[in-house]
TrEMBL record:
InterPro entries: Gram-neg_bact_OMP, Gram_neg_porin_domain, Porin_dom_sf, Porin_gammaproteobac, Porin_Gram-ve. It is a multi-pass membrane protein. The keyword Metal-binding does not apply. One of its GO terms (cellular component) is cell outer membrane. One of its GO terms (molecular function) is porin activity. The lineage of its organism: Bacteria, Pseudomonadati, Pseudomonadota, Gammaproteobacteria, Enterobacterales. One of its GO terms (biological process) is monoatomic ion transmembrane transport. Its main location: membrane. This is Porin OmpC. It is found in: Cell outer membrane. The keyword Membrane applies. It comes from Pantoea coffeiphila. Keywords: Membrane, Signal. Residues 1-22 form the signal peptide.
Length: 355
C-alpha cells in the first residue's frame, strides 16, 4: 500500500510548480533557494472556437528562505507564466503574467506573515476540488475577491494552532483596494476587505475546511448592469479524504455580488464541486468530477446556470516529473441558457514536465 508521503511526492497539484518538485540550487549558512517550473503542452478540441486549439504554457519561479534567528525565518516566492501559443512579439495581452510574488516572515509557533500577490484564503477550500487533469477551478477566478490569486494581500497563517492542537490551522487575510481601469474595471477590481480560513487535518486522511471573505465593491462594479450591493461576500466549505491511494473531495459555497457574469456579477451564486480519483501503483490516475455554479436573482433573467458539467479524465505519471493527461468535459448547459454561454463539450489532451 502506497504511503501518503509517497503519494504527495508522486502527485503534485498541477496548478502549482513548487513544493516537492523544486530543484535546490543553493543551500548554505541558513540561506536556501529552490527553482521550480513546468512546461505544459496541450490542445483543446471543441465545436466552440473559444475552447479549441493550442493551450500550451510554461511557468517558472523560485522559493527562497533565510534563517534570521532561531525562531525567525524570512521567505519569498515568485512565479511567472509564459503562454506558448502566441506569436513572437505578441503584446501584453498575450497571457504572460506574474502569478505569485510575495515575501514574509515565519515566527516559530506564532505562524507566518507575508504580503504581495498570493492566493486568497477562499482558495483554501476551492483548491481541494481543483485537481482535475485539465479543467476545474470554476468556483473562483484570479483577482476575484480573494477566491484565487490576488494582488496586495497581507496573510497570517498558523499551523497546529500555536503548537497546541495538531492538524488545526487558522489564517487571516487583508486586501487593500484595487480600483482598476479599462477592461479590468469591473471584473478584476475590489475594495478593502478581509478573509479567514479554518481547517483540520486528521491523521486518517480526512480533512475539513471553512472559508469566508467580505470585501468592498468599487464604483465601477456598482454601476454595472448586473450585481447590486456595496459588498462582495463569499463562503465555502470543503471536505476531503486523501489516503490509501484514494482522493475524494467536495466543495459547497455561496457568493454574493462576487461571481462574474455578462454585464457584471450574479447577485448570488450557489457553487458545488465534487471529484473522485484513484492512484494506481503503475502511475495511472483516473478522475471523475461534477462542477456547477448557479446564479440566483440575476437582473432580467432570474436563476440561470453559470457553469455545469461532468468530467471524465486521467493522468498517467511516467515518474514524479513527467505525466500525460486527457479529459473530456460533458457540458450540461442547455442550448437556450439565458446567459448565452458556450455549451459544447470539450476534450483536452497534453503532456506536462515539471521540476
Amino acid at each position: 500500500m502506497m504511503k501518503r508521503s509517497l503519494l504527495a511526492l508522486l502527485i503534485p497539484a498541477l496548478l502549482a510548480t513548487g513544493g516537492v518538485q523544486a530543484a535546490e540550487i543553493y543551500n548554505k549558512d541558513g540561506n536556501k533557494v529552490d527553482l521550480n517550473g513546468k512546461i505544459n503542452v496541450g490542445h483543446l478540441f471543441s465545436d466552440d472556437t473559444g475552447n479549441d486549439g493550442d493551450v500550451s504554457y510554461a511557468r517558472f519561479g523560485f522559493k527562497g528562505e533565510t534563517q534570521i534567528a532561531q525562531d525567525l525565518t524570512g521567505y519569498a516566492q515568485w512565479q511567472y507564466n509564459f503562454q506558448l501559443n502566441k506569436t513572437e512579439g505578441a503584446d501584453a495581452l498575450s497571457g504572460d503574467k506574474t502569478r505569485l510574488g510575495f515575501a514574509g516572515l515565519k515566527f516559530g509557533k506564532w505562524g507566518s506573515f507575508d504580503y504581495g500577490r498570493n492566493y486568497g484564503l477562499v482558495y483554501d477550500a476551492l483548491a481541494w476540488t481543483d485537481m482535475l487533469p485539465k479543467f476545474g477551478g470554476d468556483s473562483g477566478y484570479a483577482d476575484g475577491f480573494l477566491s484565487t490569486r490576488s494582488t496586495g494581500v497581507a496573510t497570517w497563517r498558523n499551523s497546529n494552532f500555536f503548537g497546541l492542537v495538531d492538524g488545526l490551522n487558522v489564517a487571516l487575510q487583508y486586501q487593500g483596494k484595487n480600483d482598476r481601469t479599462g477592461t479590468d474595471a469591473v471584473r478584476r477590481s475590489n475594495g478593502d476587505g478581509y478573509a479567514t480560513s479554518v481547517s483540520y487535518n486528521a491523521d486518517s486522511g480526512l480533512s475539513v475546511v471553512g472559508t469566508y471573505a467580505n470585501l468592498g465593491r468599487t464604483q465601477a462594479q456598482n454601476n454595472a448592469a448586473r450585481g447590486e450591493g456595496d459588498r462582495a461576500e463569499s463562503w465555502a466549505t470543503a471536505i476531503k479524504y486523501d489516503a490509501n491511494q484514494i482522493y475524494l473531495a467536495t466543495v459547497y459555497g455561496n457568493t454574493h455580488n462576487a461571481t462574474p457574469i455578462s454585464g457584471g456579477f450574479a447577485n448570488k451564486a450557489v457553487n458545488f464541486e465534487a471529484v473522485a480519483q484513484y492512484q494506481f501503483l503503475n502511475g495511472f490516475r483516473p478522475s471523475l468530477a461534477y462542477v456547477s455554479s448557479r446564479g440566483k436573482d440575476i437582473e432580467n433573467i432570474g436563476d440561470a446556470d453559470i457553469v455545469k458539467y461532468v468530467s471524465f479524465g486521467a493522468n498517467y505519471y511516467f515518474n514524479k516529473n513527467f505525466l500525460a493527461y486527457a479529459e473530456y468535459k460533458v457540458n450540461l448547459l442547455s442550448d437556450n441558457n439565458p446567459l448565452g454561454l458556450a455549451n459544447d463539450d470539450v476534450t483536452g489532451v497534453g503532456l506536462n514536465y515539471q521540476f
